[in-house]
Every structure is written in C-alpha cells, then in structure tokens.
Amino acid sequence: xxxxxxxxxxxxxxxxxxxxxxxxxxxxxxxxxxxxxxxxxxxxxxxxxxxxxxxxxxxxxxxxxxxxxxxxxxxxxxxxxxxxxxxxxxxxxxxxxxxxxxxxxxxxxxxxxxxxxxxxxxxxxxxxxxxxxxxxxxxxxxxxxxxxxxxxxxxxxxxxxxxxxxxxxxxxxxxxxxxxxxxxxxxxxxxxxxxxxxxxxxxxxxxxxxxxxxxxxxxxxxxxxxxxxxxxxxxxxxxxxxxxxxxxxxxxxxxxxxxxxxxxxxxxxxxxxxxxxxxxxxxxxxxxxxxxxxxxxxxxxxxxxxxxxxxxxxxxxxxxxxxxxxxxxxxxxxxxxxxxxxxxxxxxxxxxxxxxxxxxxxxxxxxxxxxxxxxxxxxxxxxxxxxxxxxxxxxxxxxxxxxxxxxxxxxxxxxxxxxxxxxxxxxxxxxxxxxxxxxxxxxxxxxxxxxxxxxxxxxxxxxxxxxxxxxxxxxxxxxxxxxxxxxxxxxxxxxxxxxxxxxxxxxxxxxxxxxxxxxxxxxxxxxxxxxxxxxxxxxxxxxxxxxxxxxxxxxxxxxxxxxxxxxxxxxxxxxxxxxxxxxxxxxxxxxxxxxxxxxxxxxxxxxxxxxxxxxxxxxxxxxxxxxxxxxxxxxxxxxxxxxxxxxxxxxxxxxxxxxxxxxxxxxxxxxxxxxxxxxxxxxxxxxxxxxxxxxxxxxxxxxxxxxxxxxxxxxxxxxxxxxxxxxxxxxxxxxxxxx
Amino acid sequence: xxxxxxxxxxxxxxxxxxxxxxxxxxxxxxxxxxxxxxxxxxxxxxxxxxxxxxxxxxxxxxxxxxxxxxxxxxxxxxxxxxxxxxxxxxxxxxxxxxxxxxxxxxx
Lengths: 739, 107
Fold this sequence. Notes:
The complex is a heterodimer.
Chain A: H1 4-30, H2 35-55, H3 58-75, H4 83-104, H5 111-128, H6 137-149, E1 164-170, H7 181-188, E2 192-200, E3 218-225, H8 229-235, E4 243-248, H9 254-263, H10 271-278, H11 283-293, H12 311-317, H13 319-343, H14 351-378, H15 381-404, E5 406-408, H16 410-427, E6 431-436, E7 441-443, H17 444-465, H18 469-474, E8 481-490, E9 493-500, H19 507-516, H20 528-533, H21 556-565, E10 569-575, E11 579-587, E12 592-600, E13 603-608, E14 612-619, H22 620-629, E15 631-634, E16 637-643, H23 644-647, E17 658-666, E18 669-675, E19 677-685, E20 699-704, E21 710-714, H24 716-724, H25 731-735
Parallel strand pairs in A: 6-8, 13-21, 16-18
Antiparallel strand pairs in A: 1-3, 1-4, 2-3, 5-7, 8-9, 9-11, 10-11, 12-13, 12-19, 14-17, 15-16, 17-18, 20-21
Helix pairs in contact in A: 1-2, 1-4, 1-16, 2-3, 2-7, 3-4, 3-5, 4-5, 14-15, 16-17, 17-21
Chain B: E1 2-8, E2 11-20, H1 25-37, E3 41-52, H2 54-69, E4 74-77, H3 81-89, H4 93-96
Parallel strand pairs in B: 2-3, 3-4
Antiparallel strand pairs in B: 1-2
C-alpha cells in the first residue's frame, strides 16, 4: 500500500491543468467576453483545489480557494476582465505551480516565493474586497440547528431542509488505491458544516468473508454550506469513478430524495429510518412523500416503522410514477459507461517502461536482421519467405513502438505564448506570437530537450530582432510585431522555424564585433551567409545594452550545441529590414532509423535512407573526370563529391572498375558520397558512440549488423558541410571540432 | 502497528499500539480473527492508537458485529485522541455504544 501512484497522478494532473489555465488566460486577454474560457480557467483552479484538498495540501487549497473566488466573481461579471486581473491570475497560476512543486519535492517555499504568495494573496483579497474567512459562521450553525428540527415547512412538495444531502457509497478498491474515505469527509468539512452524518456499513460482509483492504463504507451526510453543487461534487472528484455519489440540493422536491434512495445499493436499507434519522426530511414530509408515491400499497404507514418495506418493493409499488425517472436513470447510466469508455482510450504510461520497450524492439530488430542474413545465406525458399514475413512484422512493430514515443510539439509551442506576453511587456514592445504546425509529431526526448534552445531563440528574436515600436512605424511596418513558430516534417527530419518580422541581422555590426573579439581576421573576406553564422560562434553577443533576457554572450552558441547534441542542425536566414528566420532541423527519432548500408573495402557504413535521393554508378571516363575535378556533372547540375575512403583514411586501393555515388540531400543542398559497394537497406538501431568520440565529425553513431559486425552511421549533415566546402578534409580536421 | 493481548478473567483485552490503518489492516484482521475464534468477550484498548482510517473503522465495526453474533461482548475502551476525532467525524459513538471519555481540551 502506498500513496505514491495517486500523488504522481495528482502532480501530473496539476501540471496539465495549470498549463491549460495559462493557455485559457492568454486567450482570454484577446477575447475577454468568452465565457467558455473563464469557465475553463475556473474548472482548472477548482480541480486543483479539490484534489489538493483530498491529499491535505492545505497551502495549495488555501491559496487556490481565493483564486477561485476571484474567478467566480469574474464569471458572474462582478469583476471585469482587465489586463491587470489577467496579469494577477497568471502570477497566481505560477504560484500555485510553485506550491504544488514544493509539495511534490517535500520542501518549504523559499522566502521569495512566500513573499510573492503573500503579495498575491493581498491582491486577491483586495479584489474580493474582504478580509479572510467565515463572516457568518455562527449564524449558519444556529440556522441549521433550527432547520433540521423544523416540521412546519411540510405544507408543500418542497421539503424544509436547508441542507445539502449527500449520499456516498465508496467502491471496494478505494482504500487499495491509496485513498481514505475519511480524508474526503474531512475535506468536505472545509466547505461547510456537517450537520448529520450516518456511517453505513450494511455492505460489510460476514467476518470471515471480510477483506480488510476493501472498502465497504458508505455515508449519508447532511451538509450545511454556501458552496455550489459543483464545488461539493469537486470534493469527490478524485474518487468520482470509484464511488456512487448523489447530491441533493437544499429545498429539493421530496421525490428527489425518494429517487436517490431508490438508486442506493443497499437492498435492505430501511427507507424511513434513514431519511428521518439523517434529518434530511421530517417524518411528516416523509409520510406524505411516500403516500404520494404508493397510495395503493398496503403498508403505507410502515415507512416510519422499523419494518419498512425494502427499497425494491417501493420501487415497484410506485412504478407508474417512477417510470420516466427510471428511464432517465438508465440513460444516465449508459452515458456514464460511454464516457468511461472514452477515458479508457488513452493511457498514462511510465516513460521508463516505454524506453524499455523501445530498447527491446531495438534488440528485436537486430535479431531479425540476423535471421534474415542467415536465411539469405542458406538460400532456402521456405526459410527466406518466413524470414521476410518476420522482417515485415518486426518493421511494423518498430514503427508502432516508435510512434508511441511521438508527441505533438504544440504543447511546447503554447508555452511560449506566456513568454512572449511577459517579455513584450517588459521590453515595451507590442509582439504577438503566431504558432503553426503544432500537430507535428516529434520524439518525446527531442521535444523535452528542444524547449531551452527554443526559449533562447524566441527571447533573442524579441530582444534583438524586433525593433522598438517607433523604429517600426518609421520603417512603415505595423506597430505590432510578429514572432512565428512553425514546425513541419521534411525528408525524415522535423523542421522548426523561429521567425520574426524585425530588423534582420546587422551584418556590419556582427562583422565588427567578430573582429573585435578576434573571432575572424580583420582582412577576412566573408560571404553574407558566413557573417550570419558568426552569431553561433562561442562568446558572441551584439546587444548594445545587456538586458536581463539575453545579451550576456552565452546565447546562440549554446543553442547550436544543444541542437547538435540532438543530431540536428541550425541555420539562419535573414533579410535586413524584413526579419530573421532561424531554422532548426532535427531527426525524427533518436532510436531507430531505416538505414542504407554501403561498403568501403571490408568496412560497412550506414546512411539514413530518408536522406538518400538516388545512387549512380561512377566508372570510366566520367570517373576520371570527377576524380580530377572533385565534382560530378549530374544532368547539368554540379554535385560535389566526397570520397568516403579518404575521409576515413582507409588504406586500401579503390576498386578497379567502378565505384558508386550515393546522392544525399539535406535541407537545400545535395552532395555525392563515393563508396565501393551498395549493400541495400538495413534497419538500424542507433547506438551512441562513447564520450571519447564525441568530438568526431562525420559519424553520428554505430550499429550492430545482423552478422554481429559493427557499422558506423554516417552523419550526413557533417559530411555534407565537408563536401560542399569543396575539399576533402584531412583526418586531423575531421577529428577536431571544426566549427 | 502492534496488538498486545492480555487476559482479564473472562475478557480478552487487545491493546492496539500505533496506526490502525490500511497499512496494517491485513495484520489486524488476522489478529482479530484469532481472538474471535476463541469465543470470549473482547475488549479493545485504543489508548495507544496514533492514527485511524476508514479501514480501521470498518474493521472494528465488523469485529463488533461478529462478536455480538457469537453472543459475546465487544467493547472499545480508552479511545485515543485520534480515535475520538474519527468517532466524532463519522458520528459513530451511537453505533459502538461505548462510553467515550473526552479529553479536557477537546471540550
């Protein structure tokens, strides 16, 4: 027995809810009239409060309660949606996050956080125009005591009860799930006062049939509170699926009580005893309610006796009246079932388990490649066929397994709405964030690790890229600047663009700075592209003013390193006066790729299939010409060539008759890689190279072939930089981290 | 959780020490099952109970029912503060029917 899984679920849920709250708040800023958004925000805050209450996280409950009160007033239109209110609520959201994290990490808030919390609390209370807590508590108690004894309201169908009536039956697994029904009752007490409570233990079996870890309890509660039905329901949100809960509002029709009682699971429950004992109804009300429903029944008066008719009997007796209700109940039940089925369609899985699965699938891929190898060697028709079926299935399993790890990048993008909002305020610039391609799938690991570099790029765009409003207006641009995030798939990789419509890079300034810092020689002749790329050089910063966002000189080179660590590349495209676009290209997945095996002498290398355009033969006079010029005339296009043999310094003679060129493309450029043999497609499980080789360029990893041999996976991007630069670099250059 | 057993004439006294919660529910169930099988009057001393949850409450209720069905008494005595809090929250005193001694500060 432990609470950890339930807590984990709470923390994950709180995270999601806070994210949703933030998104809705940001959207609310542009659509202050949208009630749906306000409701959404309210629900998020409310659910967090509810579950936090169940776990007894009082700090979270206390703070969130006030936030919820403000939201409630916003919902009622008593508080206007202004930028200040939204600003405060956004800060509130951050503070709730801080409180939840503190609980999760089992530590106290630090002084700054506490001060922030107190400041926010004061602002919230000021908005509510009140001093904290319980203005009329004593009055409530007095009134409720009065009400529960009152018989005088029995004149109409409404009952005199001013209390809520809650009827709860907990599911058998509640305790095993780490939840204690008692804690829900305790939490309920924070919303109001329990006037009367009956603990029902009719479900308790005989001693020997008892399972001490199952829950058999139910409660009938009369509850005095100003809270709304949704709030009361919210108390039980965490066990909603595992309990039967009926909530009857104050002054309900008597028939409503009867309906609820019918729905209760206890067959032998004594109707009269229950209702009167709990104080929900007076005896007079009950008698009248029953006689209305079962006039023809012989034992109408028995309701008030200990020998009340069983619940089922009453149901039948009053069948005519209740038919509609029963139908409604059935429909309702079906709806509940349907919604349960909906929920079951998505599962939360521990990421570690997924990683283990993928690792196993990786092993499976290698093993099946081995089988295929053997099958080819034996050249036995049946075996070949069987192994091909196996290979196809393994491929499907691999794709499915990998797709499990795929998540949409949209959630990561959405987070930047808040960043852009806050930063644009801070900088006094009017900036909007445009997001597209949020549905693009990406490996979860990549998504997790792309957040920081993106953050840097977005901030950089806002800080350095976007001009001050006056400058924009003077240049004839709209005052409101745009920062755009876009993602899409292209040739086996994912492309993420961070673009702005700002001033573009100031090349003169960059060059001057680079010379100042000794990054380039004073007389160096650099192309525009080369100048642009200087901003990725270590220790480069051009901001005239160091703001607290960026401009501390640890910027773009860190971004580049982060992205390269993900086997990605980063490119920059800028037009003075128009804007800048930074393009990040990332591999789809980090684990398994479709590879194409090529050979030099006895060594095997693997290229990602997605990057290969075609393969051509290199022989005869064309070969001699290509050899001499270093490029190939491909249907009138110049295709730079790279001899893999030379790149890796393999000391064996090139084959006499012919070589092969694998034409690869990456982004906008194409290049040819010259190899001895083409060996066909091969599923490749990528294994990272050790730390020792981290500086090695041209190779991104290794893989084990079915035969047990090792093949190096070629880093196409790295190789292409070499090929395009038009020279065959020496091994020394390759090994260094030339950048 | 521990349960100490002493025999006081015709009555078996079980003294529960520690948490009477789901964590020890199976163990407590085993202990009570043995005690019930002896068919003697039972007295449960709750003075040392530090925490009670729903499982503890229902276990006591079930044991009481089982004992009384056998025609033996089942008595709760010396409720600890934690026990009293739960008894009050769930309004159980009339269910168990045992006299409760309220601590002075709770009044």
